[in-house]
Specification:
Layout lengths: L2 H10 L11 H14 L1 H15 L9 H20 L9 H23 L1 H4 L1 H6 L6 H27 L12 H25 L3 H14 L7 H7 L4 H8 L2 H13 L14 H26 L3 H4 L1
Length: 302
């Protein structure tokens, strides 16, 4: 085939748009189809993130457990034994590790997603991919680490003779969805903003650190209720935080010692969680639209 014939063949090929389409809903649907069309690449990115995290490490995936177990040991001895928090919370170790497992998933999704575009600058400048695959890859790698920690949590409940086999297990799915929906929404939004404002990733680290202490992980929701008795609106704002709801949902599943205490969780917890999931889906939609608006100049900014 001559050069002229090759040019003619290329000229006859239909143009395929790689940007967002006109309508907002249509654009989001196009982005979703683009991600699904590149799902194999998404899987490769997830595996790459998991392997690169423990590359040249002798212990490998064991390090996934070191941080939460170290946090558990610190909180158990400092907060539980020295400060006496365990006196008001039965099976304090299970209670703390449940909260750490839930919050760890959200923290890894948001933290990894925020820096995902910058970390993949080489790929973004060389080839076309739906840019959303990069923060979504962070969701996948965080999910892998979460599964490992979840196995440890389940083993601990069996070791203490309180396996999570009860009607309360129904809270697991909405609690997990809360973490995934809100975590993905923030990861997509912040990954785009971080390209233009590089300080965002450091600010996110600080906010995530503070967010752990703003969730009922080393203290109970009942304690917050008692403290805010004179200002019930503060309790409502605190309780309806999606991360608080997710942590409370996980505690209803795995912390069986709290099932007999009606004060361990707010009333209508399931309804609150479902509403938060609905709001989270709306936030996720608008986060993707902001991402779509900002991604046009990613290559230039990187």
């Amino acid at each position: 085939m001559t050069a002229q014939e090759r040019f003619q063949t290329l000229a006859e090929q239909p143009l395929i748009p790689v940007g967002s389409s006109g309508g907002k809903v249509g654009s989001s649907w196009s982005a979703l189809k683009g991600v699904l069309a590149h799902r194999q690449m998404l899987g490769l990115l997830v595996r790459r993130d998991i392997k690169s995290r423990y590359k040249d490490s002798s212990l490998g995936f064991v390090w996934t457990l070191v941080r939460p177990l170290t946090q558990l040991a610190i909180f158990y001895f400092v907060m539980g034994k020295i400060l006496g928090a365990e006196r008001g919370i039965p099976e304090f170790a299970i209670y703390v590790y449940t909260g750490l497992t839930a919050y760890g998933l959200f923290s890894e999704i948001v933290g990894g997603g925020t820096s995902s575009i910058i970390m993949n600058a080489g790929l973004i400048k060389k080839i076309y991919l739906p840019r959303e695959v990069f923060p979504l890859a962070s969701v996948g790698s965080a999910g892998f680490n979460f599964l490992i920690q979840l196995v440890i949590l389940l083993a601990a409940t069996f070791a203490l003779g309180s396996p999570p086999f009860s009607a309360e297990a129904i809270y697991f799915i909405p609690a997990l969805l809360l973490l995934l929906v809100w975590g993905t929404a923030f990861a997509i939004l912040l990954s785009a903003v971080n390209v233009y404002l590089r300080d965002v990733q450091y600010l996110v680290e600080v906010v995530l650190m503070l967010g752990m202490w703003a969730s009922p992980i080393v203290y109970s929701w009942e304690m917050v209720k008692n403290i805010t008795a004179s200002h019930p609106w503060i309790l409502e704002v605190y309780t309806n935080n999606p991360i608080t709801l997710a942590v409370l949902g996980f505690q209803r599943v795995f912390w069986t010692a709290g099932h007999d205490n009606p004060m361990s969780a707010p009333p209508e917890l399931m309804l609150r969680m479902l509403i938060a999931i609905g709001v989270g889906l709306i936030v996720l939609f608008f986060s993707q639209r902001v991402f779509a608006r900002l991604q046009g100049n990613f290559a230039q900014e990187l």
